[in-house]
Amino acid sequence: MQVQLISDATERLFALVLSPGDEVIASLVNFVVQHQVQAASFTAIGAFEDVTVGYFDWDEKAYRPTPLHEQVEVLSLVGVVASGVDGVPAVHAHVVLGRADATVRGGHLLEGLVRPTLEVMLTEASGPLQRRYDPASGLDLIAIKPEARRAPPDRPPS
Fold first, then answer.
1. How confident is the model over 2-20, as pLDDT tens digits?
2. Fewer CB within 10 Å: C terminus or N terminus of the chain?
């Protein structure tokens, strides 16, 4: 396991409410660029009218997309923001979706169109995170700084 202390200071917390027709990933990328967020985690609930989730195929080193062209509830959406290999913020999110028949679908969120809303709570970390290409997986993974690989010592109780 690798560990990097991102922040032990006060972090900014944002509430974002997306509107019908907003595309989630593009909206989040636009927000973090506009607010110069270099690292963050987020959760969200709401609904989509159209969504594509992906399953990472290890042998192919690619996501297999599964589109759902139906109204679904966003039961859980979680993700992280880090600087991509090209310096542009990268949003990585996974989602669990509830269908009208009470079955669920989920996976890596590739694209989602909001209807009627998506309520996002985004917590910015004070330190940056950077993604680097990992040839073994074929993915851009969060790169832990070498000096940060040791877990921080336990703090004495306050």
1. 666 666 666 788 999 999 9
2. C
Query: How do residues 58-114 score in pLDDT, each as one tens digit?
Result: 999 999 999 999 999 999 999 999 998 888 889 999 999 999 999 999 999 999 999
| Domain residue spans of the chain | 15-143
CATH code of the region 15-143 = 3.30.1330.80
